[in-house]
Amino acid sequence: MEKTIITVVGKDTVGIIAAVCSYLAENHINILDISQTIVQDYFTMMMIVDTSALEKPFGEMAEELRAIGEEKIGVQIKCQKEEIFNQMHRI
After folding, report:
1. Rg from Cα positions in the chain
2. Which DSSP category does 57 fall into?
3. DSSP reduced 3-state for 22
4. Cα(11)–Cα(57) distance, rounded to whole angstroms?
5. Are strands 30-39 and 3-11 parallel, antiparallel or unpaired?
6. Contact indicator for 80, 5 with CB cutoff of 8 Å
7. Alpha-carbon dihedral sign for residues 45, 63, 73, 14
């Protein structure tokens, strides 16, 4: 299993979850865990996904999600491989 952490942050609007989940499904990326909340008008979501069936380079997927976030739904979407995420957040 190849786990990736996806974070989504921005002003709440209709369709954020749909846009992200549609992209993941189209690219054979399975959602393992998901947490989301809205604080006042701000949406945050953190997902752990399995990218082992992804048929394109990781960087291409990360860039496509970033572009979907910025250009289509007005949020920031960032992707990190689990091992890098863990190293960056280790105390």
Report:
1. 13
2. -
3. helix
4. 29
5. unpaired
6. yes
7. negative
Residue pair 1/77 in contact by the 8 Å Cβ criterion? no
Please give the distance of CA 81 from its chain centroid, rounded to a whole number. 11
The CA distance from 43 to 13, in Å, is: 8
Query: Token digits for 52?
Result: 């082992």
**Structure tokens given for 19:** 């846009």
Question: Which residues, including other chains, have CB under 8 Å from residue 75's CB and lie 6 or more apart?
Answer: 8, 9, 10, 11, 13, 16, 43, 69
| Other Cβ atoms closer than 10 A to 90 | 6
Q: In sequence order, what are the beta bridge partners of 10?
A: 43, 75
Mean pLDDT of the chain: 93
First to last CA, the chain: 25
Beta carbons within 10 angstroms of residue 11's beta carbon: 12
Structure tokens at 13: 């609007």
Q: What confidence tens digit (pLDDT) does each residue in 74-91 have? A: 999 999 997 676 666 665
